[in-house]
Design a protein that fits this description.
Elements lengths: L4 E4 L4 E5 L8 E6 L3 E6 L6 E6 L5 E5 L5 E2 L1 H9 L3 E3 L3 E6 L2 E6 L3 E2 L13 E3 L3 E3 L6 H10 L10 E2 L2 E2 L1 H12 L7 H4 L4 E3 L9 E5 L5 E6 L4 E5 L3 E5 H5 L8 E4 L12
Antiparallel strand pairs: 1-4, 1-7, 2-3, 4-5, 5-6, 8-11, 8-13, 9-10, 9-12, 14-15, 16-21, 17-18, 17-21, 18-19, 19-20
Helix pairs in contact: 2-3
Length: 263
């Protein structure tokens, strides 16, 4: 599909929907700093069809929430090592106006002098370099910040999130790019035997609704998942949902030498 233009999210969160109507289901969400390509603008121009750069998810956004940028700035964003926020919420000044943004937002602050930014920002919250890869202890700390977030199909924020969104966001903040959907996670990383699962591994299983679920393994045989809300469940409760089908375990981080799961 031809690219018609480019944009970047300049609100705290923007809904990306399955169809060009406000009642349509969420496909995913844009957070502040997520940039995208414009693929379609219908004649009435109320909606815009986009493709996110980070994970290639496509969907419709309200045209009033679109912030257009030049192709040059889009390419600059692609190559700049910006900061990703690690505070649950924080405030920035954008064009001299205060704005609250959420964990996992991208702020265009870089140590590089190569890029001339088109916009002005002031930010003093907690953040790390987007490309910096961190260890499993950092990953677990970030995962715990989403605890008790309500379940929301298509959500990616601490105010509404789904299982694959939780996995994607925790890993994104840790420094790794993962796909958005649970079925896509089956192709990510290295598959390891269930008996060798370690903290930080992604666990994928089918529940009694036959839907693929995703969670992250923590210490002490615990799993952080989305079930009504982000919660920590004993591993055994998840496995007994479908005892005939053992979960898939996908490893993204470097293997740890300890804390192997034993059965």
């Amino acid at each position: 599909m031809e690219v018609l233009g480019y944009g970047v999210c300049r609100l705290s969160v923007v809904a990306v929907r399955q169809a060009p109507e406000h009642q349509a289901p969420l496909v995913t969400q844009l957070l502040f700093g997520d940039h995208y390509e414009v693929l379609n603008v219908p004649d009435q121009k109320y909606w815009i069809y986009i493709r996110m750069h980070f994970d290639k998810m496509e969907g419709w956004i309200d045209a009033t929430q679109h912030h257009g940028i030049t192709q040059e700035y889009f390419e600059q964003i692609n190559h700049a090592n910006f900061k990703i926020t690690t505070d649950l919420t924080c405030n920035i000044l954008y064009k001299k106006s205060p704005l609250t943004i959420l964990i996992g937002s991208i702020v265009p602050i870089s140590n590089s002098e190569l890029f001339k930014m088109e916009e002005q920002f002031a930010f003093n919250g907690e953040a790390k370099s987007l490309g910096q890869k961190r260890e499993v202890e950092f990953l677990k700390t970030i995962a715990m910040k989403y605890l008790n977030a309500p379940a929301l199909a298509g959500g990616r924020t601490p105010f509404g999130i789904d299982g694959s969104g939780l996995v994607q966001m925790v890993y994104k903040i840790t420094g790794y790019t993962l796909p958005r959907q649970a079925k896509q996670l089956l192709q990510a990383g290295e598959e390891v035997p269930w008996q060798e699962a370690q903290p930080g591994d992604i666990v994928l299983w089918t529940d009694d609704t036959v839907e693929l679920q995703a969670g992250i393994l923590l210490d002490d045989h615990k799993l952080i998942i989305v079930n009504g809300q982000v919660r920590i469940d004993p591993l055994e409760e998840r496995i007994t949902i479908n005892p005939d089908s053992q979960p898939k375990v996908k490893r993204i981080l470097n293997p740890q030498s300890r804390n192997l799961i034993t059965t």
